[in-house]
Amino acid sequence: MQRIGLLTSGGDAPGMNACIRAVVRKAIYHGLEVIGIKRGFSGFIEADMGPMNVSSVADIVQRGGTILHTARSDQFLTPEGRAKAYGNIKRFGIQGLVVIGGDGSFRGAISFNREHNLPIVGVPATIDNDIPGTDCTIGFDTAVNTAVEAINKIRDTATSHERAFIIEVMGRQSGFIALAAGLAGGAESILVPERPFKYEEICERLIRGFHRGKLHSIIVVAEGATGGMELASKIKAQTGIDTKVTILGHLQRGGSPSAADRILASRLGAKSVELLMEGATKMMVGINKGEVYHIDIEESLAGTKSVDLEMYNLANILSA
Ligand code: ATP
Fold first, then answer.
1. What domains are defined for the chain?
2. Per-residue pLDDT for 59 more than 90?
3. From the CA of 34, how far away is ligand 1's center (Å)?
């Protein structure tokens, strides 16, 4: 293998830049050339790509977002679009590809690998942490820290005004951010899509807390469990208590990556290059019990991943 391609795809995540840096520098260290592809699979189809060198990735380890930009591409969902991308692979002499992104990007990578036989290694990067086959994804730790910082600030104002607050965090299918941020931020209630909940119980908990003399209450809710506004109106209707809602939204995607995310991104990025050099055809790199490892992408995508129930129960005990 002499020349590899590299792209970031799907939703951006803090730490993608640290991963780009690791892939480029590790590849160059081993004498490989790297072609950076812009805007994910869109740039792949439109030939928006060019060579990268050691200097192209200078001063980015601490930056959020992705210098290669990212996009979602409808064209890549079709065999015709992927054939067009393959034309560019030939034109640029790319012999292997590193895809930094989420599960959708990996499904795209698999389709491409099946049709055109290009060796591909996926590096899991999404703030949602919902990719099976790895304990942790790049960007998750930073997003959790961002949410905890928001909880801390809201707690200050909630205490001053003796109020209840709802903080809605990202996570349509999974409650990883909600659970981790809720536990670390000492939330009184945490709602995740994976666990059924009753509005009555949330309300009872809220009232019990205020009767016990609590000055404030914080409820952290994953967007996929219920909308923050909807929850607030249900609480108002059942208890008469006014709750303020803060939706963190895209704030969670930005910011300088945490040290943990930079380290994870560097380790996984470097491993992806090693795997391509060793002849991997369709692998995903990941973390398993603290160790960098790899797994067949299809095997990973066939799996499931859900929040840790023990952690969920613990959060409930500690917030009682
Ligand atoms: P995030 O988890 O942050 O949303 P993601 O990688 O899952 O990131 P998606 O929008 O699901 O983001 O996928 C990114 C791109 O991957 C899509 O825009 C599309 O081009 C491609 N893609 C997704 N699924 C497939 C598929 N089944 N076949 C071909 N390409 C796909």
1. 3-139+257-302 (3.40.50.450), 142-253 (3.40.50.460)
2. yes
3. 23
